[in-house]
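Re: duplicated header lines in exported structure tokens

Our pipeline writes sequence and tokens for each protein into one text file. With two proteins the header for the second block appears twice in some exports. Here is an export where it did not happen, for reference. First protein block:
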Amino acid sequence: MQQEIVHLQKEEIKRMKTKHRFFKDKMAVLGCIILCIFIIISILTPSLTTNDPLKVDLMERLNPPSSTYPMGTDHLGRCVFTRVLYGGRTSMTVAVAVLGIVLTIGVLVGVLAGYIGGFVDTFISHIIDILLAFPGLILALAIAGILGPSLINTMIAVAAVQWVGYARIVRGMVLSIKEKDYVKTAKTCGTSHFFIILRHILPNMISPIIVLATLDVGAIILRIAALSFLGLGAQPPTPEWGAMINDGRAYMQTAPWVMFFPGGAILLVVMAFNLLGDGLRDIYDPKNT
């Protein structure tokens, strides 16, 4: 009982130190604030604008920013402000969904390769090496091109490329963790492999995976936007940041706001995720504990 109390006290002290280090990192806090603002805006989008993101009004096409249209209108007279807000919901929702798929596949494959070893590890490692030999965006572009243009196919293409990084890192962590004394002791005591993975291996990987996932969301948003920009992602008239930049490309000289605002939104969100991820990495770095 006494040992359990001491353990809980140590865990509480560790959590307090982690919070303290996080709030001392101004850039990480800034990234967190920016993300919170975007998330709140995405949730409240229907309340923040009364304009229809799909409504076409050619009489209002390419109007500059004004009180009626804070970010101007595009080539079809649609409110850019409204489309940026709804585009944010699309982009971030898709990115989080892809991240969930990638985490599930990457962690599962990495744990299997690292824990089982032998032929399974060799086979999976070769697949990972082959996929990592190709530039991720080019491979995603090829997969999306084969599947056809749609947001769902873009999600599949990005997930098919992105999981390998998680699998490789998780495999390395599992190879290290399974050699620890407490894991060997659990095996000696006849503990099931499933319980060992669930109780001893996965909990020790949570912090690095959280850091990697936070840094990776920005990369996923960029890849989805890039594929949409190339016409392989979200299809008209769906508001999505990459597709909106593509829509404004022809009017870059005469109506730069059509490209500027969705591009700025991508920049801010990706920067925020990177700042937050860098801060979390510094916090969970073993040298800082």
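Second protein block, exported in the same file:
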Amino acid sequence: MRPWAGRLGTVAAVLAALSLPLWFRGDFILFMATQAGVMMLVAIGLNLLTGYAGQVSLGHGALVAVGSYTTALLMIDAHWSFWLAALAGMAVSTLAGLVMALPALRLSTWYFALVTLTFAQVVTDLLVEWRSLTRGFSGLVGIPPPAIGAHVLGPVEVYLAVAACVVLAFLGVRNLSRSRYGRGMVAARDNPLAATASGVSLLRIKLFAFAVSAALAGLAGAFYAVQKTVITPEDFTADFSIFFLLIIVVGGLGRLWGPVVGTLVFFLLPELLGPLQSWRLLIYGVVLLVLMVFAPHGIMGMPVWQRWRKRPVASDAPAPGARAQPVQRLSLAVQDLHKQFGGVAALQGCALVAEAGSTHALVGPNGSGKTTTLNVISGFIRSDSGAVLIGGTDVSGRAPHRIARLGVGRTFQTPKLLHDLSVRDNVRLGGFASERASAFEILFGLPRARQDQRDGSAAAMTLLRFVGLAERADDLAGDLPHGQQRLVEIARAMAGRPSLLLLDEPAAGLSMDELDRLGALIEAIAALGTTVLVVEHHLELIARISRSVTVLDRGRVLTAGTPQQVFSHPEVERAYMGREGTGGAR
């Protein structure tokens, strides 16, 4: 089936579903459909935060409350129009969310959840105690309906306004999930090391997710207030927040349609059961138990809903211009690095120089400080003293995502891939900083955002051809064998067009054929002008690809020079090659 036909069918189904309440024309049906839309707005935002960014919030009911009370107070006391008051409600909810999130995001997931739950309780207490503003337990009464000029909107028009907001929110989150922001959120959730090495600021990407989520909660709160016309603190208790979390868990965490399906299950189904209202909690429990057994990833995570649609992939034969582009040549200088972990000296005066566009090998026995050196260069560890200069610029002490954006790519001893994303999207993560569309442009699918999508996908395919994996572009990264996962990680590191590439034991676990291909790939990368610093135990590979070698032993430089000079050094033969001269030891 052609892609446009599938999209057309989806649009038709959505329009038909949205029109159902209009056909029935009953006040109760319209009220329930509008309430469901309000719940969907909150769930869509919470799914972005929890499902994509991995931050469990138990305080979203409080953000709805902030939006509701802000909108209602401005309409009642300041006589603002609903539309301006709703914008203010969104802004205040976003600000409240950021105030809650900024300190909490530095905590682990479940401590973060506890902080958000505490925030929800604080908001509820304020609604009760701040009587001069919120009217305490009595709440706000007589909230006027929305209007456009002198025309007061009726139930049908309010429903249509809510439905339009739900569709826009859904499309905006869909656009985000398919953009660099979506890939950055998933990386921050599943593999923070990979995210940071690709130039993603973990704090900023999580704050962004929280801001969007809080804004949608505030908008939902605005509609909640005008639809109910009376709001009290009892509307926003702790179970209100947990209700939204249940919606996205049942629908499918991190699934685009999860919030929609979850809302229909948890909100509309019990209402339609009418006489069984007293059994509502039991119904919820049964639904959860069934899902835990048969659909642990939620309804939309069930295999029946997964569409494994393979996009056509071009041949591995290089197309005109379909090759990795040359980069700016920069040298690397490591000067007198010292680092202690407790009482153990990991680095004791480590120093090396890699000429621009060359491949430099860092070798030594296990525990000699090789990976620590890479971690210091890339910013994952701060040295106690010494300096790291890239192209003459001192990058010592900078955050790792900032160093990555300066043109430093790296791989790890164990490939750090996002196993539930495609190979193509894993590579695209490496180009996070090179895409230029703003969040606003991405949310609304503006031309520069669409151009970024096309350019990013084309660049990823170019790199996959470069490493020989174009035919696996749409496979899940977790389904690839170990050797191919290493190649994907190298391709991701190259996606940011680095001037310096750090490879940490790239040959570990590879067969002889894979070693030959790896050697040819590293030579091709160096030919582009990229300076390569490789940590490796396989001496034959080092002799083939390296222009210069530095040997570490207990954190100190034992010797440095060309491969021939280093490997003939008496102390190297005695301390290193005697143990690993077979070329395959680690």
